Amino acid sequence: MASALLALFAIAPLMHAQQADDAWKKLFTQGVYDAGQKDYTKAEQSLLGALHEAERFGEKDVRVASTENTIGLVYAAENKLGEADKAYRRALAIFEAASGKQSLDVANVNFNIATVMFNEGHQAEAMPYIRQALQTYEGQLGGNSVKTASALCMQGDAFRAIKDYAAAEGPLRRCADIRESDGGVANPELADAVYSLALVYVGQGKYALAEPRFKLAEKIRESTLGLTSPLLAQTLEDHAALLKSMGREKEAEKLSTLAAAIRRNQKKK
Length: 269
Fold this sequence. Notes:
Layout: H1 2-36, H2 40-54, H3 62-77, H4 81-99, H5 104-119, H6 123-141, H7 146-161, H8 165-183, H9 188-204, H10 207-225, H11 230-245, H12 249-268
Helix pairs in contact: 1-2, 1-3, 2-3, 3-4, 4-5, 5-6, 6-7, 7-8, 7-9, 8-9, 9-10, 10-11, 11-12
C-alpha cells in the first residue's frame, strides 16, 4: 500500500502538468484561430487564458514567451501598440534566456518590436531591433528569404523616414529583388518595395529612376488591390507630384483626377 501511494504521489504532478499543457495548447490554438479570422476580441480572451495556463510552468517558460508574442500580434492588429510592445518585450527576454540572441524566435520578436516602434513614429529607435532580426534571418534563412526581404524593406523605410536616402536605397533594392524573385511581378509586397524605392529616388532628385517605379507600383496595386484601393490613390498622388516637378502638368492632372475619384469613393463607404 505504501509503495502504491508513493507511486501515485510521483505520478500526480506529471498528470497535473500534462493537464495544464493540454489546457494551454487548446486555448492557444483557439486564440491563433480567432486571430486568423480577425475576431481579435475573442482571440485576446483565449490567449490571455492560455497565458494563465502557461504561467503555471513558471514565469520564464517558453510557453509564456510564445503566448505573449502572439498576444502582442493581436494587440498590434487592434492598434493597441503600447500593450503590444509590452507583450513583445516580455517574450523577448524569455526567448533570449532560453535559446540565445541569435535564435529565430528572438529575431521574430525583434522584428515585431521594430514594427510597433516604426508605426509609433520611432523609426530611428527601431533600427537596432531591425538590424538584429536581419542579421539572424540572413544567417539562418539566407539572403533571399522572404523574412530577410521584410527586414530589409523595414530597414530601408526607416532610413527613408529619417531622410537618409542614400542608406535607404540599398536595402529597398534588395528587398524588391527578393520579392520579385519569390512571388513574381504581380504581388502587393513587391509594390510596397518599389513604391518606397520610388520615394527614395524622389528624395535624391533621381526623377528618371523614380517614375518607372511609381508606374510599376500603380500597375501592381491596381491588379492586386483593385481600382478603388487607397494605396493606389496614394501612389497616384505621389506620382502626380513627381510629374509636376518635372513640368508634365497634363499627365499629373490625369493622375490627380483619378486619385481624387478614389478618395471620394472611400468617403462614401
